[in-house]
Amino acid sequence: MLMVYGSSKASQADILSNTHTLHHNLFFTLTPEQDSAVSVLDPIITEKGCKLGITVYRNPTPTDMTLRTTSSHPPEHTMAAYRAIVHRMQNLPLSEAHRKAELDTIMYMEKQSGFSSR
After folding, report:
1. How far apart are alpha carbons 74 and 88 in whole angstroms?
2. Which residue range is the domain that position 20 belongs to?
3. Are residues 52 and 40 in contact, defined by beta-carbon separation less than 8 angstroms?
4. Is residue 88 included in any domain, yes or no?
5. 12: phi > 0 → left, psi -120 to 50 → alpha, else beta; which?
6. What pLDDT, in 10s, does the model give residues 40-85?
7. Is residue 38 part of a domain?
8. What would the 3-class secondary structure string for the chain be?
9. Given CB 3.0 to 4.6 Å as the disulfide criterion, which of 22, 66, 73, 115 pairs with 77?
């Protein structure tokens, strides 16, 4: 569950105490925004005025390669990573600019991993 709230209208303690009463098996944590952005799993949710935007989180460490085409892994394993990141790109509500940037990243990863462009 994702909840966006205005910190001028509610405190973190109030939010946590109210959400912890929803169900005894649900536990919530707060992820405060930094530089008008919050990283939630793969997407980063950014705030621009009264609008929220979504981009894809990338580790600061190099993640520009998946399994190489020359590896001895079955092709299904090699392609699983690409299916997952393409699915993410297609299903996150990205802006056109962010969608193009993600596609460019995927194409770069393919090239670095030894795939040829089609």
Report:
1. 22
2. 1-30
3. no
4. yes
5. alpha
6. 666 777 777 777 777 777 766 666 667 777 788 888 887 888 888 8
7. yes
8. CCCCCCCCCCCHHHHHHHHCCCCCCCCCCCCCCECCEEECCCEEEEEECCEEEEEECCCCCCCCCCCCCCCCCCHHHHHHHHHHHHHHHHHCCCCHHHHHHHHHHHHHHHHHCCCCCC
9. 73
